[in-house]
Design a protein that fits this description.
The C terminus is likely disordered. The strands form 2 sheets. Strands 1-5-6-7 form a 4-stranded parallel sheet, sandwiched between helices. It has a 3-stranded antiparallel sheet with strand order 2-3-4, covered by helices on one side. The chain is built from 5 helices and 7 strands; from the N terminus they run E-H-H-E-E-E-H-E-H-E-E-H. Helices cover 29% and strands 15% of the residues. By secondary structure, it is an alpha/beta fold.
Length: 233
């Protein structure tokens, strides 16, 4: 593991990880997987496919009674980027009308990912396994996917679970784990638990190289929802 990280980038599962990473590091720079609701396989497949299958025309539809938009190509659920024209439920026409702007935002965030991976920055990627579903082999696979896509990238993985992993000793180099307990009724998670998980980690004050703008032609600020009250990007 690196002594100091230039960036800390969240890889889901949902808004808790984004909120806590920004609170702890003080860096609110937007990254591709921020404020999204997505399963581990969506993270792996999106990185392996270089973000090409996200938000393709005709593949995005209302989901969960219109509370979010589901991208069938990536299985990512977008709660904060598509907005209903009336009421609280998204329609297909709402999504189709806003799709170009949302795609522009995420194309820029994908390019930000690539730029960071090509730079000399050391990055800590954090995956919050909110339901203790993964194994050490899953995290090794994620690390291999990132390393294969970006062979010169300097990075480590932090696997955060609700309980200690039974196979934590099988993670291999460049991967570590920690625990953060759930707080019923509080989407932001437990501040003290997240502070403890990050206690021995150090972050640089600024990155070693510039990154492109996050949102040419589109706002990078997520809209508030029932699960997200933090709108800083």
């Amino acid at each position: 593991m690196y002594d100091v990280y230039d960036r800390c980038v969240g890889l889901g599962y949902h808004c808790e990880s984004t909120h806590q990473i920004r609170r702890i590091t003080g860096n609110d720079r937007a990254h591709f997987f921020d404020w999204l609701d997505l399963d581990f396989e969506s993270v792996v497949e999106t990185i392996a496919g270089d973000f090409a299958d996200v938000l393709l025309p005709g593949m995005v539809e209302p989901f969960s009674d219109g509370l979010c938009a589901l991208d069938r190509g990536s299985d990512i659920r977008f709660f904060h980027d598509f907005h209903p024209s009336s009421g609280t439920a998204l329609t297909r026409s709402d999504i189709d009308r806003q799709l170009d702007g949302v795609r522009a935002k995420f194309r820029a965030l994908a390019e930000r990912w690539r730029t960071l991976a090509r730079s000399s920055a050391s990055v800590l990627y954090v995956h919050h396994d909110a339901f203790d579903e993964l194994t050490a082999a899953d995290l090794r696979r994620l690390r291999l996917v990132i390393a294969t896509a970006h062979p010169r990238h300097r990075f480590d993985l932090l696997w955060l679970r609700r309980t200690p992993p039974p196979d934590g000793g099988a993670l291999g180099p460049g991967i570590t784990w920690g625990t953060v307990s759930a707080v019923p009724g509080r989407w932001e998670g437990d501040d003290a638990e997240w502070d403890a998980a990050f206690r021995d980690l150090r972050f640089a004050a600024s990155p070693p190289s510039p990154e492109p703008s996050a949102s040419p032609g589109a706002s990078a600020t997520p809209a508030p929802s029932v699960t997200d009250r933090s709108t800083s990007v």
